[in-house]
Amino acid sequence: MNEQPLFKDGVVGDRMNRVDGRLKVTGAAQYSAEYQLPGLVHGFLVGSTIAKGRIKSIDTKAAERAPGVLAVITHVNSIKVPGFANRSQPDEPPTAGQPLRVFHDEKILFNDQPIAIVVADTLERARYAAGLVKTQYEADQHATNFNAHMDRAKVPAQAKKNPKSPQADHDRGQVDGYKTAPVKLEMEYVIPTEMHNPMELQSIIAHWEAPDKLTVYDKVQAVKGTQRAFAKDWGIPEQNVKVIATFVGGAFGNGLHNWPHETAAIIAAKTVNRPVKLVLTREQMFTMVGYRPYTWQRIGIGATPDGKLVGITHEATGQTSTYEDFTESTVQQTRMMYQSPNISTRYRILPLDISTPIWMRGPGEATGAFALESAMDELAHALNLDPMEFRLRNYTDTDPDNGKPWSTKYLKECYQMGAERIGWKNRQMQPGTNKQGDWLVGYGMGVGTFGANRGSAKAGARMLANGTVVLQSATTDIGPGTGTVMVQLAADALGMPPEKVRFELGNSLFPDAPSQGGSATVNTVGSAVVAACAALKEKLYQLAGSTFSAAKPADIVIKGTQLSLANNASAKVAYADLIKQNNGQEVAVVTESKPGNERQKYSMYSFSVHFVEVHVHQLTGEVRVKKMVACADAGTIVNHKTAGNQMLGGAVGGIGMALTEGAMIDDRFGRYVTKDLADYHVPVHADAPAIEVAFVDKPDLIVDPMGTKGIGEIAIIGAAPAIANAVFNATGKRIRELPITPDKLI
Prior knowledge:
7-stranded mixed β-sheet, 18 helices, 25% helix, alpha+beta, Aldehyde Oxidoreductase, domain 4
């Protein structure tokens, strides 16, 4: 572990503009559906119109005769995917069950399940022909109503196998110890199904370059994971699968899984022996690429009259599909956020005739925090305590779940920064007493946390003859500015200007890196980049020989096409001379960075707190978020602009969770009625107030050598309950089922 921050002076910490910003705003950036390949044709999916049953017959003759149609593929005539026969459990997600095997058989497991793909020379012709496919079904009774089937909820398979699983029942101290508290409450909370709805639709171009060589241009968060999955599906060597995801137009978890539409496009490309482009419609995005699952939660919470927690019981049931067990960490925050002698958590999943959910930004924790942080606010009100004071009285200096010390924890600083910026002193203890004309004014807060994770990754570094350093790693950038941050880290590590550094990503040919998810990319890939820069300096030092013999490799700086020393500019050598010594080859290295045993000794988390001021109209129930302050304890902030953008985006997502978003199913047909952005309401600019971001910006040198911790998840965790708590403070009405719409307030 470093005892001092790795970076002192330099570009780390600057508000540097995105290195790919110009490419994106000028349209030069190529997304997965924008590559032009010779002979490219188009696919369009046909979805089932029932939620459960089987296909009796499927008539494709009219579609096959339509102009420009090259193939209509169904379970009747589809190429069989070799891996379908062997796969008993999926690689992603690592839970029990069987991922949907597209065109594998006649079974229907959810409404809009892909049952056919039409391939034609234009998108318009493919879509028209898809409407000509006629299907007859033998329908079974389906179950999509969550409340009507709660008795079917079950313990996840992984929890049955492993009592130490995060999804297993857990008790610390007395079971349901809150019941012994002098002051106790019991409440139920509901979060509806929420959809990802990124700007870029899910898309793929599949191209078989040879019978055993596949290239895909795909919207994914893991190029290496996708490479492994498709190689396994098709029984070909991993190196024969190339995955390109250089640019991703927003992803909040829906790119973590490989979905049936991708395999459908690959099947189609093999069938017609031409590259096939498949872009989902916005309606298909609601059914085919995952979502935040509908979740019911119950909190029992109790404290002493002076505000010391006695116990918390947190029960949660989330929906999943009938064919896969999807689980998430809904109750984790309850186990470690506050000091309480008694904690009980219970987690269940409810299989329904729907498609499989997937992790969505703040997976599990964002859902669980709505219940926990609302309950903390409710109990603070019952105790006549300020909600922040109540949290401070139950602050933890070590992790109560495992007894380990925190790697770092600066949550109190977040409280102080946020309270000052939001004007917490203006909050009234009695709800409904703060008014501005016809508007009721309220203040609320919500705390969030997410693991400060670090995995293994590799990075390559190569110095070109012109003095530019090119780094490569098979990570992706789903929006947070990964390429920019890696350039900053490398520029500081190499002692050179950032404009002379290029970072390349999103290609499975590059050195191995994990998926972008779980707030771990900077910790993981950034560590590999820094290690690669150190290895590059070491190799240059060795080649320079006697020129730098009195110095250390770390002292080398790169200026133009020459190398010199940070503390002795007169000692220098031309890079061209080093290339000659290297047999004419540019100096290049590939390194791997891995975490040590830090997690065995420390509990490592990022923390956040959101403060909100809302105005609620007394007559109409309209809620306006007037101001938000998002504060984060996320270690060293490499780029305050891109990190701030993440916090802003998470806060806006929290507004959506709290006030506008929620998918609805017509249970008669098992079909979503909110299936586009007209009926499913995401927050827009008019819904987003002035949002202020504040960072503690203190390094955590236990998590990684840069001192960074993750931001992406904590940006949204705690935002929705902060708004709900502010609405209660304004109106005295406690809304426990999201979204908070005017009809619930009038």
